[in-house]
Amino acid sequence: MPRSSKKKQKKAEDFKKVKLKVGKKKAPAANATDTSFTARAIVVGVQSISADKSAQLTNSHNHTLKELLAQMRHYSAPTRKDAVVGLGDFAALHPAALRAELGAVISATVRLVVDNEPGVRRQLLRLYGTVLPTLEPRELAPFVPLAVIFTCSAMTHILDDIRADAVKFLDLLADAAPATVAQFAPRVLPSFFSLLETSTAAADGARAEANARTALLSQGRRLAILRSCHKFLCVFTRPLVPSSDALAFMAPPPAPPVACTEQLFFPDATAPFAALNLFGEADAGSSHDADAATDAAGAVRAQSSAALDRLYPFLQATWIESAAIFAGGNIGADDSLQLCSLTLQTLQVLWRAVYANAVPPHETRLIGFLRQCSTFFPFGKDYSGDTAVEDALLALNSRVCELAALVQLGTKVDSDEVLASSDVKLSSEVKPGSNTRPSSDAGLARVFKRATRFMLQTLGHKQTKLVRHEQFGELLAVTWQLARGGGRSDAEQLLTAVMHYAGVCPLASPSKTLAIRFLTCIIDAQWTRVPEPGALDVGSTQLAALTTTWVLQLPKLLWQLRDRNLDASLAAAVALRLVCQRTRLLDTAAADTLYASLAPLFGVDVPGKGRVHGPFRLYPPALQQAVLEAVACCPRSPRLTRAVRASIADCHTQVRVLAREIIA
Fold first, then answer.
1. Which of 70, 101, 240, 464 is 20 to 30 A from 412, alpha carbon to alpha carbon?
2. Helix or strand holding residue 612 (H, E)
């Protein structure tokens, strides 16, 4: 009974009839389609690509500088990347406008140095690599502090790829504004220390942790960081470099300032005799400048010494790991060779900054490093092949020779006496199983002798290949230090090797000029300056004979050079004037030979042909004047006087006047 009632109720619901009521709308049919809709208002902004910006400066995508800088802080990484690309396009089209808004550009873009997106940082590197070289250092200087802050923040970032890119940004800044970036060394150097993990904490746990993290650095990552660190150290220590001249190492030490000014010659000047410091009144301006320069150099040396303390453990570990390439003999242009080169380059910058002229005996780190290098020195002795590898090996050997010379100058011990007293043979090592051990001084002396032999083989009669001009300049600096630190026999052999190399290098080579200037500076240093400590003494019998022979060949060299190498000709003329004017190097017979050999420069009388002019007429006026100044320092010679008188007809007026004064 209950079931039947439920069925009736369900059946009634299926066929229920809807009653219509007055005032009510009719319900829609069950199969009716609802066509009504609702919509919100759509506001379409003005698109920048279609806006009229003819009165504004835009890039190729019609974006203004203000719009591009605003997009630098967009939340979307592709938008930031496109903004950097657009800014590079804008800089190429409107460089002047970019310079006018350089502050806003640097402030907006430098924040992307720590951007998490690698693509954004790569585009920023391309932008900086294109824009920064076009700017003057004075234009970029006001904004370098902000750039250094973000770069150092990136160098200590938690992400490895951001730290790797940070050193690239620092390289660009150091190239664009080196002097300004160098001022932030107290902030930049600790960032490098954290990158290289050269922790010097006293706790063993901290050291172990630092060494463990250092081991995680791959060779490629170490190479990139070390290359950037070396570049920054070169920029930072640049104030200690006397000049860019290749022979700046031979310059005399700067003389103290003389307390004398032009005010002495004007009685009506204010305090005309104040510069004499008669009553203890020092010149405040000059003393202040000198003190400032001294303080700046001292600060650079102090920070370089601290950098040596922090970097040496890392550099030593890198050298020990990478120098294994020399043990197997399989040397190639790989990361290991580059790491060895950069390790020595970095140490060279530091030891030149901290110890300019000599490494003291208490510097056990560099002395120990020299002993480690001596294991494979000379590196790649029998290597022949890739030119880049040969250049790298020559640079490595040159730097080891320089360190050996500085250590020898610091110990002030005669290497020949030490080796003789210790009975150490240079041609063989200590026999295995023998109880005889060379002393510490004997070991350093043996390294010094090997360095001297290497320089003799590179420049002397046994040399088989000429080096490039830049390499020759480095070798001359090492030769000078070895000659000053070794015995007299070493100095004579080294000077003979330089003279031999000066004779065999091509006439048009810049090395010819450098060799002539080097030998001239040696003569000048021995005759016109206070003698320096060392074995290089041109006044000795053998060295005087060698130097005299070289001087007597200078007129012939001037004839051979003609107008092929004007710099070398000018250097030879200056050398002749120095020898004739300031030294007593030539005796009477040698002087007569020199004067007789100078006459053919101006011309000779050939029987049957008459007067044949020499290369003097081909020289430019400056070189002609230099040659005549050298002739003026010579005693009167009738033959030389006739030769000069016959060759000055077509010369410059100033040259003719000087020649007439000489032959008058």
1. 240
2. strand 610-613
Look at residue 651 and tell me whether its pLDDT is greater than 90: no
Q: Residue 251: which residues within 8 A CB-CB, separation 6 or more?
A: 242, 243, 245
- Measured distance CA(148)–CA(185) in Å, rounded: 10
What are the residues facing 151 on neighbouring strands? none
Q: What is the largest CA-CA distance in the chain?
A: 160
The span from the CA of 479 to the CA of 497, in Å, is 10
The mean of the pLDDT values for the chain is 78
CB of 497 closer than 8 Å to CB of 460: yes
Residue pLDDT, tens place only, 523-549: 887 766 555 555 556 556 677 777 888
| Cα 169 from Cα 539, distance rounded (Å) | 54
Give a three-class secondary structure readout of 376-406. Answer: CCCCCCCCCCCHHHHHHHHHHHHHHHHHHHH
Exposed, middle or buried, 268 (CB in 10 Å: 0-12/13-18/19+)?
Answer: exposed
What pLDDT score does 470 carry? Answer: 86
407 vs 462: which has the higher pLDDT: 407
| Residue count of the chain | 664
Distant-in-sequence contacts of 540-546, Cβ < 8 A, 24+ apart:
540/488, 540/492, 542/492, 543/491, 543/492, 543/495, 544/585, 546/492, 546/495, 546/496, 546/499
Separation CA 96–CA 94 (nearest Å): 6
- Determine the Cα–Cα distance for residues 128 and 148; give it in Å rounded to an integer: 14
- Element spanning 490, H or E: helix 488-504
Q: 3-class secondary structure for 317-381?
A: HHHHHHCCHHHHCCCCCCHHHHHHHHHHHHHHHHHHHHCCCCCCCCCHHHHHHHHHHCCCCCCCC
The 10s digit of each residue's pLDDT in 433-445 is: 443 434 567 778 8
SS3 content of the chain, % helix, strand, coil (to 5): 65, 0, 30
| Contact in structure between 264 and 231 (CB atoms under 8 Å) | no
Contact by Cβ (8 Å): 137, 179: yes
Query: Which pLDDT score, from 0 to 100, does residue 347 have?
Result: 92
Cα 134 to Cα 151: distance, rounded to the nearest angstrom: 20
Are the beta carbons of 182 and 139 closer than 8 angstroms? no
Report if pTM > 0.70. Answer: yes
Q: Is the confidence at residue 652, as pLDDT, over 60?
A: yes
Angle between helices 335-354 and 364-373 (to 10 degrees): 150
**Residue 606, strand partner residues:** 610
Residue type, 202: A
Q: Please tell me what DSSP assigns to residue 64.
A: B
How many angstroms separate the Cα of 222 from the Cα of each of 151, 197, 218, 338, 515?
18, 11, 6, 10, 38
**Residue 111 banded pLDDT, cuts 50, 70, 90:** very high
More confident residue, 208 or 580: 580
- Whether the pLDDT of residue 199 is over 60: the answer is no
